[in-house]
Design goal:
alpha/beta, Aminopeptidase, Alpha-Beta Plaits, 2 domains, 6-stranded mixed sheet, 4-stranded antiparallel sheet, 21% strand, binds ligand BES, binds manganese (II) ion
């Protein structure tokens, strides 16, 4: 890499970090309306930073929900254009009492940045901004670049879907680059080549018309919390298979060869169990943990409530019970179809002594990205240079709903070059991001641009 670029990064390292810490201080929680103004302030801060770095046409684009930050640098129409996508919104920080330092007061401990959003995705978005700044200031930018940083990824990106349909011309590019995933280990670089889809449901079970005394009525009247637990339990059989009729119908069967390839990724069952402090693992029979979390669909309760959940004991037979249930989907499954199958099945199995309401909250489709494209090869080459090892292609279990739409609406393939670790506790208390990872990203991204421009020339 140009030594000039390296020296620029080296000379500005501390500022790059401090600016990220400032960004992490704004609580851009997209799910909670209470933070609406903070989400907007985060968008405005990014706008300012993009302008300072040298981007043009920088705009905070309003949507029906949270805004999208757009900016671009077109240096030469004959050069390839990279659309950089990321998100500046974060997950809610609770449970707050489990954080060892406040989620929006970033601190550095053991070479890790602790804050909500440090890894997912403000830290990874900011690597792109600083890599862009470094390329601009050293005159080494080799591709056109467009930035699209949204504020609703953690709530399903539905307004971004509308935005990209309405802005096809503005978003014209040759590929999409996303840093919002993980590598296997700091010593084992990888590039994500698959994401799962998602169908997210909420169910409400209603029993009697009001909360009842559980002694006076208990025994004769169905308890909706008990009923909900039974219904949920029946959604999986003893082999971990989901029992919704038709659920597996479209599931892409991964062949033996590909499964053998996947099994080469380093994985220690023992270390995995130890790190999670569980006595054993539990998953769909016939598949390895890596397969269970990537090529197989799942069903999980994300939250369940009803009745009395306060301090101490209150005897009550609740009127209502609720649960939030998500299904991770794999290629060829369709989230809308799965939501409908779920709804139909759930209503069918509900006993007549309760009423059920089923709502689909959001969904998104699974993706598999190519490993034979110029874009992938450029990313691979860049990581090989900075990590000293060729990255392994790996399918991830997480979801980024908009990626499927990049292909469908814009005809663009995506490269998922993330720098986080699965152990960074994203969405959990004490989310953190390694300084190693932050700086590795800033160092690798310019190389990606360099190789992508070179390889595109043929
Ligand atoms: N960045 C994550 C997705 C991710 C994490 C992919 C780690 C691969 C490895 C993203 O912000 C996310 O959390 N997505 C949500 C989906 C969304 C609709 C709420 C998810 O996967 O739960
Ligand atoms: Mn993310
Ligand atoms: Mn996330």
């Amino acid at each position: 890499m140009s030594t000039q670029l390296n020296s620029y990064i080296e000379a500005n390292k501390d500022r790059f970090l401090n600016e990220l810490l400032d960004l992490l201080r704004i609580p851009s929680v997209s799910a909670d309306p209470k933070y609406k103004n903070d989400v907007l302030r985060t968008a405005q801060a990014l706008q300012q930073k993009l302008i300072e770095a040298g981007a043009n046409k920088v705009e905070v684009c309003p949507t029906a929900g949270h805004p999208i930050v757009y900016g671009e640098k077109i240096i030469d129409a004959s050069l390839p254009t990279v659309l950089v996508y990321g998100h500046y919104d974060v997950q809610p920080a609770d449970p707050l009492d489990l954080w060892t330092s406040p989620p929006f007061e970033p601190v550095i401990k053991n070479d890790q940045i602790y804050a909500r959003g440090s890894c997912d995705d403000k830290g990874q978005v900011y690597m792109h901004l600083k890599a862009f700044e470094a390329m601009m200031k050293t005159n080494t930018l080799s591709c056109n670049v467009k930035f699209m940083i949204e504020g609703e990824e953690e709530v399903g990106s539905s307004n971004l879907g509308i935005f990209i349909k309405a802005n096809k011309e503005r978003l014209k590019a040759d590929m999409v680059m996303v840093s919002d995933t993980s590598i296997l280990d700091n010593k084992v670089p990888s590039i994500t080549v698959g994401l799962r889809g998602l169908a997210y449901m909420e169910v409400e079970v209603t029993g009697p018309n009001r909360d009842l005394h559980s002694g006076v009525y208990g025994g004769a009247v169905a308890n909706p919390v008990n009923v909900l637990c039974n219904l949920i339990a029946s959604l999986q059989d003893k082999n971990g298979k989901i029992t919704i009729p038709g659920f597996y119908k479209d599931v892409q069967i991964v062949n033996k060869k590909e499964r053998a390839e996947m099994a080469k990724a380093p994985f220690s069952r023992k270390a995995y169990i130890k790190e999670l402090n569980v006595a054993d693992l539990k998953g769909e029979k016939g598949y390895s943990p890596l397969e269970q979390t990537s090529i197989r669909p799942t069903l999980d309760v994300n939250g369940i409530w009803g009745g009395y959940t306060g301090e101490g004991a209150k005897t009550v037979l609740p009127s209502k019970a609720f649960a939030k249930i998500s299904m991770r989907l794999v290629p060829h499954q369709n989230s809308e179809k799965i939501s409908k199958l779920f709804e139909k099945h759930f209503k069918k199995i509900a006993p007549k002594y309760v009423k059920v309401k089923v709502t689909a909250l959001h969904g998104g489709e699974a993706v598999v990205t190519p490993t034979d494209s110029i874009a992938y090869k450029a990313a691979s080459q860049a990581m090989q240079e900075t990590f000293g090892k060729k990255p392994i292609p790996v399918r991830s279990g997480g979801s980024i709903p908009i990626v499927a739409l990049f292909e469908k609406e814009l005809g663009l393939k995506t490269v998922l070059m993330g720098f986080g670790l699965d152990t960074d506790d994203i969405h959990s208390p004490n989310e953190h991001y390694g300084l190693f990872n932050y700086y590795k990203g800033i160092e690798t991204i310019p190389l990606f641009f360099k190789y992508y421009a070179e390889m595109s020339k043929g």
